[in-house]
Design brief:
mainly beta; five-stranded mixed β-sheet; 13 strands; 4 helices; Fumarylacetoacetate hydrolase, domain 2
């Protein structure tokens, strides 16, 4: 049986050093003029969830999407981590990072969810790569996080309660690749079952 989230799925931005460094100059521009002090979160609503192996439809006005490959923590009892799962966090390319726009991140089907939960293992030792049509296009090393998994949980816990079944992504590395309808996306990581989704054009 494939894994399906039992709670709310949260994404986090600016949690890889390379991503934060690439956007550093923008963080000091108006209106904010300083980097965010708390984690920048957004929600991937239930309409976005697509199981591993499923097709993800791109609307006619969305010629390409960003592939946000990541690993997510699944919250257990008393704030523990019950396991980890691969995720393909798709979004329409956009410039905002302080206030992630729902219209670009929460389109139907825009979150591929790995087929199985991995229990055990230290998330800071995880790595992954993205293959598009069989070609390696992207990689992420989770030792390069701004906030470690434990620190991210602690910082989020200062302003909200994560409940059993909720899911918190660890973030996406800089240089997210773009993909179009017809492309097959595969996210592979040692110790995880691979996550594959195919992008298709939305039916008229």
């Amino acid at each position: 049986m494939s894994y399906t989230p039992k709670g709310t799925v949260y994404g986090v931005l600016l949690n890889f050093h390379a991503e934060a460094e690439a956007l550093a100059s923008q963080m000091h521009a108006p209106p904010y003029k300083a980097p965010p002090k708390a984690p920048v979160l957004y929600v991937k609503t239930a309409n976005t969830w697509t199981p591993g192996g499923g097709a993800i439809a791109l609307p006619a006005d969305v010629p390409e999407v960003e592939i946000g490959a990541t690993i997510a923590m699944v919250i257990g009892e008393a704030g523990t981590v019950a396991g980890h799962v691969l995720m393909n966090d798709l979004s329409v390319p956009h410039a905002s990072f302080f206030r992630p726009p729902v219209r670009y991140k929460c389109l139907d089907g825009f979150l591929g969810i790995g087929p199985a939960l991995r229990t055990g293992g230290d998330a800071e030792g995880f790595s992954l790569e993205v293959r598009i049509n069989g070609e390696r296009r992207h990689a992420a090393d989770f030792s390069q996080l701004v906030r470690s998994p434990a620190q991210l949980l602690a910082d989020v816990g200062e302003f909200m309660t994560l409940r059993p079944g909720d899911v918190l992504m660890l973030g996406c590395n800089a240089g997210r690749p773009l993909a179009r309808a017809g492309d097959r996306i595969e996210i592979v990581a040692p110790g995880f079952e691979s996550l594959s989704n195919t992008l298709v054009a939305e039916a008229a």
